[in-house]
Amino acid sequence: MTIELYVVIFYIFIFLFGIVIGSFLNVCILRIPNGESIAKERSHCMKCGYQLKWYDLVPLFSYLFLGGRCRKCKEPISKQYPIIEAVNGFLYVLIFVVKGWNFDAVIYCLLASALLTLSVIDFRTYEIPFGINVFIFILGVVHLVLHISDWKEYLIGFVLVSGIFEIILRLSKGKAIGGGDVKLMAAAGLLIGWKNAYLAMVAGCVIGSVIHLIRMKVTKEGHVLAMGPYLAAGIFLAVMWGEPFLNWYFSLY
Prior knowledge:
- The protein is mainly alpha-helical.
- The protein folds into two domains: 1-101, no CATH class; 131-253, no CATH class.
- It is 70% helix and 0% strand.
- The protein contains nine helices and no strands.
- It has helices at residues 3-31, 61-65, 80-99, 103-125, 130-146, 151-172, 179-192, 194-218, 228-250.
- Helix 4 (103-125) packs antiparallel against helix 5.
- The protein is globular and about 60 Å long.
């Protein structure tokens, strides 16, 4: 086989692995806010209770084969399931395309899955699960060990944006920002470093302001917004393209 064919096969494998993880993310999104176990309880139809067989759980393909409906009661299955699976698979491929074939890319894939999960949960509940922040923190520790020569960059990242958010949290008494956002930026800052963390904060705030203003205008949404999804978007953008952007920006001076 040619090198090009190997590359295509590799990316297909990465996408398939991504949608499998995406299926697990759907379980987390559904069960974590309700305090349910993500490992012990078997997947079932939310309408009739039908316990899904293994062939009902093939990511993307089972949904398409079943026509988006429960095998037993024919209740429509939420489109969230194939969307999360497909998005996670796409993100995995994108990360390996941009970052190359290395262990950092694996860490960033896991980060992307965590960010995707917390975004949906926070958008619905206005709460970022503590366990997801702990998971990102662990990724940060692993990444720090792999890049120990740059330890100052990442330790400063741990406290910089989270420190700013902590001050805002205390001054506003929790009205301007939540404790989950503080913990998210601490964990993410440890993983991506202070420059990218600061960039992620700015990008997240800009994206959040623009999108929420549009939502307030179009859907009459209230002033309260969940910052998690927008900070997650900023973190992902910083991870993917923060370094070239910052290099370009500082070259202007």
